[in-house]
Batch of 4 targets.
Target 1
Amino acid sequence: MNNESEFETQRTNISKQNGGDKRSVETTYSIQLVPDFFREEYSHRQVVDLEDHYHGYVVWLREQGKNPDEDEGIASSNVPIVFSRTVQFHRRVWEQLGKYTTRFTHEHADEYEQDLKDDNVTKESGEPYVESSKRKLQEAVVKYFLWVSWTKGGEPWKPSLTFSQSDFQQSDYFTLEEREALYEAALTYDDLGRYSDLSPEARERQKGYLAQKLGKPKSDVTPDDFEQCRRSWEIPSLISASLDLGPRPKLIERCLLKWYKPAKGEFQIPKEGAVKNDQYWNNPVSSRTLRLLDRWEKQRSSLHKYDESEHLWLNREGNPYSSKTLNYLLDNLLEEAGIGQANRRLTWTSIRRSTGTYLAYVEGLHHAKCQLRHMSMQATLVYVEIPVEAYRDALDQLTVLSETNSADGHPLSGDSSVPMEVLQNQ
């Protein structure tokens, strides 16, 4: 990566005295302002010009990009993501024009969102983007023209097309019964049985599985490995904590052992660990999760794959979990739990939606908002559904009311017969 085109952005403290010189930025990760494809296709002076153009945009994203009126920037971890999506839009314009420019217009944006709709803009693999990805690419274009409006004048760009909300709206939530079934499946997950109880054929088969899981030759797998697998609290603690926290996959990927505070019965998530915001969060967990984490913490200290890692959980390859590996784990647990997926979309986000839905139902939206680490109630509302139990309770109450009124000889007549508190509690 060329140092001249490298902009580092975590904890971006641009000095006001020196006019925001990029050399004064404190860093923990960097953004390559000028992509490699551009450096290969365009001249040195165009590279420098684009670097200057993008530098102002990235600083604005970090300092004002979320709410310019309040000088509120977007989360540091999201700056590279929004920037990358913006570059994708610009690259499309350059390709269509056949030349370089930084004078992007609303007409360019209109054509780009139409190309998104028509699947003329695709992934590198040639596959079309799903609706939620199209919306995110569109939002990056909105963000770019908002910067242009704030810094250079002109009107912000307003999209004319609507793409669906992000993937969490397309994921169904787990019911209370399914939440418990998921936890129970975690208790038996990877329990291959006692080595002495297995037939020679079963031993060989399971040795092959364990060899792959543990990253060692099949000949090195021992009865102790079988027993260690049977007694591991790694997956049960992960699932139980996730049912409490409703974490995005990125939070599990970042989660460190030191975030867990057993004496307080909570996770303390620092600003740099938070997802989609830069806030500090204290999230309590259930008594069950505390017991499991206590057991897992003791086991974790004796496992070789954690010797040089601060992460609370690692996948079987010894890497932090990702959305892909978490969903792979979830699919296996769903199969073991016998939770059907017909006509439903169950993903890791289903855990988050389930936690939000039931916390809102039992304790109210404020509890759900805090536990899901949302900055606004509106964000929480997107995750919350009226659970089937709430409908059932309401219908049971209606049945009681109907039966009571009929017995008293006063049949229900209009809304006035239904107590207001019954409606307000639904």
Target 2
Amino acid sequence: MTGATDAPPDEQSAQGFVLGPAASVEDGQARGFPGPDGRKIIVVRRNGRLFGWIDSCPHFEGGTPMAWKTDAYLDGTGQYLACHSHGALFDIETGACVLGACLGKSLTPARLYVSQDHQIRLESGQTSREIER
């Protein structure tokens, strides 16, 4: 699996905060999962790969949640993550703002892996990682 961590099951439990089942995010879909600090983690599946981002638009100081309703993170075309507060669009794979007031800024990545029990888990650290199921 590209970019995935293959830790033994006992290490996976100790190292990764469980976000939810990998099967709960279908291709072309984005979902928000509660993170360990109370902020949501956006998980997007594109072409079989998962991408993780903190649900916080960089346009406002301190960030702001991006969805206008539960799991409404994608724009109308499904090609970009969208901040529905002010219309900014973000590249799903890089998190870079491609349109809007936050050009030059990016979403904060959440490092993910899928464990042997098929759960999406959050690793410590803040480096973007894409993974395959």
Target 3
Amino acid sequence: MTFIACESLTLNIERRAQMESTLDEAVRTLSESAIVRRHGVLVTRVSPTTFVASLSPDVPYGMTQEKTEW
């Protein structure tokens, strides 16, 4: 089995209608790495159209948290 670790994804989402599904897909993409590391996932909105989804030891294992920084 080949495992490629992914720690973060930067997403540019221009259309509100695509926001939820795109962010859900990003969290699913990070899930395997989160399980291996026993971290949660933090989704940070850094601008009106830019989001960063990343593994975070500060988020409880199995959880996803959202934050806004703009």
Target 4
Amino acid sequence: MKNILTIKETMEFLSISSYNTFKRNYLNQGLPVISVGKNKRVDKEDLEEFINAHKISKELSNS
């Protein structure tokens, strides 16, 4: 499995179809991005760490 994802692959992995939603909820919130020329890539390990860091506990989500 690939460890470095394109923005499109990252959005597909997250089931997000809108780039604006991805930008607002992930990039603007600090998801690390690798810049290669004009292209942007996301390390899958960074993505998983970002998701884990933004988890809400069950108690809070039921409130």
